[in-house]
Specification:
single chain, about 120 residues, 4 helices, 4 strands, about 60% helix, globular
Length: about 120
C-alpha cells in the first residue's frame, strides 16, 4: 500500500515532465498527419486548413502546427502574387479537398463527410 502511494505521484510527475520535454514541433506534426487523417481525427476544410474531426490524442496540436505553417505559406504566396490571402486559402482548400484520399474526411457546408 505504501509503495502505491509513492509510485503513483512519481509516475504522474514523470509523465508531465516527459510531455514538456518532448513538445511537438512541425516535423512531428507532419509525421502524425497521415495517421491522424487515416484514423478520422483530422480532415481538410474548404478554407485551406485542417480541421479536427475527433478531438483525440494530439489531433488538435497537429492541426494547429500545420495550420500555422500553411497560413505563413499562404501569406507569402498572397504577397508574392499580389492577391488576397482569402483567394490563396480558397484555392488551397479546393486542391486539398480534391487530393484527399477516399475514406478520409472533408468538410462541406460545415459538415464532416467521409470522401
Amino acid at each position: 500500500m505504501t509503495f502505491r502511494k509513492f509510485l503513483m505521484p512519481l509516475l504522474l510527475a514523470s509523465s508531465l515532465l516527459s510531455t514538456a520535454v518532448f513538445a511537438m514541433d512541425l516535423n512531428d506534426a507532419m509525421s502524425n498527419l497521415s495517421p491522424a487523417k487515416a484514423a478520422g481525427l483530422l480532415g481538410e476544410q474548404p478554407n485551406g486548413y485542417l480541421g479536427v474531426v475527433q478531438a483525440q490524442g494530439n489531433a488538435a496540436e497537429v492541426a494547429r502546427l500545420i495550420n500555422d505553417a500553411r497560413r505563413a505559406e499562404y501569406q507569402r504566396l498572397a504577397k508574392d502574387n499580389n492577391i488576397q490571402l482569402s483567394d490563396v486559402e480558397t484555392m488551397a482548400g479546393k486542391k486539398a479537398l480534391e487530393k484527399t484520399q477516399p475514406g478520409q474526411y472533408i468538410q462541406l457546408n460545415g459538415k464532416w463527410l467521409k470522401k
